[in-house]
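W.,

You were right to be curious about this one. When I first looked at the sequence I had no strong expectations either way, so I just let the prediction run and decided to look at it fresh. Below is the sequence, 67 residues in total, followed by the output.
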Amino acid sequence: MARIGDKFKTSQTCETSGTYDWDGYVDGTQTPAPTYEEKRIPLESGETFPPIRSCDKSCWWKLSAYA
């Protein structure tokens, strides 16, 4: 089970249902900024961490709350 603050990247499988916050792009950049709706996502166990669709970039997601 993941802990609050653990980070995951685009294409990994979610192991813990919860709310995840955008935590930067995998390539180390911070731009372009994701849309407001893309910065925080709910994810269920077994789903795949998505890219930021507005710019199609891989990113890091940080667990911020359990579902």
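Here's what jumped out at me. The chain has one domain: 7-66. And, maybe more interesting for your project: The chain has no helices and four strands.

Coffee later to discuss?

I.
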